[in-house]
Amino acid sequence: MGQEPHSQTTQAFPLSIRPDATNYDETLANHHLSSSATHPADCESSQVQGHTSIDGTIQLPSGAGIAGQDAQYHANQVPLQYSTPRQSSSQNLTPKGAHPADHTIGSPGCYDSSMPPQHRRNDSITTFPLTHPNGISMFPDLSVIEQEAMSRQALAQAEESIVADSDEYSSSGDAGTDAGYGSDSMSSASTSIGSSVRDYMFENGRRYHSFRAGAYNFPNDDVEQEREDMKHAMVKLLSGQKLHFAPLGDNPQNVLDIGTGTGIWAIEMGEQYPSANVLGIDLSPIQPTWLPPNVHFMVDDVESPWLYPQNHFDYIHSRHTVQAIKDWPQLFTNALQHLKPGGWIELQEIHHYPHKAKTGEAVPPQEHPVAQYWAYINEGLSALGVDFHAAAGGKLAAKMQAAGFINVNERIFHIPLGTWPKNQVLKTVGLYWRTILADGLQAIALGPMTRGMGWDRNEVEVFLINVRRAYNDNPTLMYMPIHIVYGQRPY
């Protein structure tokens, strides 16, 4: 596991930012990225249980990854450098209630797509047998065939009706209420990156992005990055390990990931499709630097004018951005212009509001503290110009069609809230989802409730006490829908 980087399959890339983020002007249009640097002589690592640390400075190779038609828009960006990769602190990756075991994680600075799936770090593709993000077997007593069958059953039930576990339902709560899980986090040491991007804002004890400050009302600190990586694992597990539902074929060339976050989806997409050039954009520079050679990241605001060539992308992906996008019609218009004829756009958005498993009805706020919590989040975001329920009621599909997309499809899957499903895959999905939400109570609430509703931090903390208890103690069977919406640009 602590292996040397393969020169043919892994490189360290600069992160780009929009010219206007650092007062660079249009004279950069003819500037081509270059930096004189080499790979480290070796990638020795000291391994301990569940953790690998790397010493030494990682520098960038010359002309990292900019070639051909992509130079047309990469040339407009500012080259940046990191000297330290995202470090892995994986000793707590597995939620309580899962299968703890001793495990040594491979070097996070050495991206190695040739490693067996069970030994890859958590930002590579997970295949059967199913594993937790740290590589520990999820169902060690089941064969690969049994796990595949259970996964197919889980996907079908999530789209139709989830069968409850009678033992779970009869109890007043479920096991594994509190979860420890780890993820990679970006070290900020020795960086050369525009100060308008790197100088984060701190508010109510949490760190927020500074580029286009206020455009995204949730933190970007290490704790939040851990939640985002776990959310990725949860959605993949629910989706039968699919990274996308749109029919892309075997050879997509240019892929855009909007709101890439930690970059985990973009990295796995680049590994799954070696033919594709994958670009991930986000307001926060929190992505790793050791990447597959076909994956790049850029600090950008998708709601600013797009810098990319028109008729360029084969596939545009956006997931978990409903809490940030304010102008969906404009986003769809931009996507239509920048997709190739026949290209696809896909949204994967959770409707963050609890529904009753038995009836499918939304839980009234007065009936449950969790429902009241999400009603307040929606109220706060509405005051900030964000429609937090944009994914509900077929609204995204309708807007996509109105923009001119054809072959628009919407699939809705139920994410169980807690471990009440009988199917073991769905039970694990529910454990992940409750952990993600319970651990993120404060992170989710602070921005909308202080910025949007005018609460102070103490009021928020007092309110959260009952919500946290309700997540763990109430036996109500609830789920949240995730809407998968995809459409095609006409030929």
From TrEMBL:
<dbReference type="GO" id="GO:0008168">
    <property type="term" value="F:methyltransferase activity"/>
</dbReference>
<feature type="region of interest" description="Disordered">
    <location>
        <begin position="83"/>
        <end position="118"/>
    </location>
</feature>
<feature type="region of interest" description="Disordered">
    <location>
        <begin position="33"/>
        <end position="63"/>
    </location>
</feature>
<feature type="compositionally biased region" description="Polar residues">
    <location>
        <begin position="83"/>
        <end position="94"/>
    </location>
</feature>
<dbReference type="Pfam" id="PF13489">
    <property type="entry name" value="Methyltransf_23"/>
</dbReference>
<comment type="similarity">
    <text>Belongs to the methyltransferase superfamily. LaeA methyltransferase family.</text>
</comment>
<protein>
    <recommendedName>
        <fullName>Methyltransferase</fullName>
    </recommendedName>
</protein>
<dbReference type="InterPro" id="IPR029063">
    <property type="entry name" value="SAM-dependent_MTases_sf"/>
</dbReference>
<feature type="compositionally biased region" description="Polar residues">
    <location>
        <begin position="33"/>
        <end position="60"/>
    </location>
</feature>
<feature type="region of interest" description="Disordered">
    <location>
        <begin position="156"/>
        <end position="188"/>
    </location>
</feature>
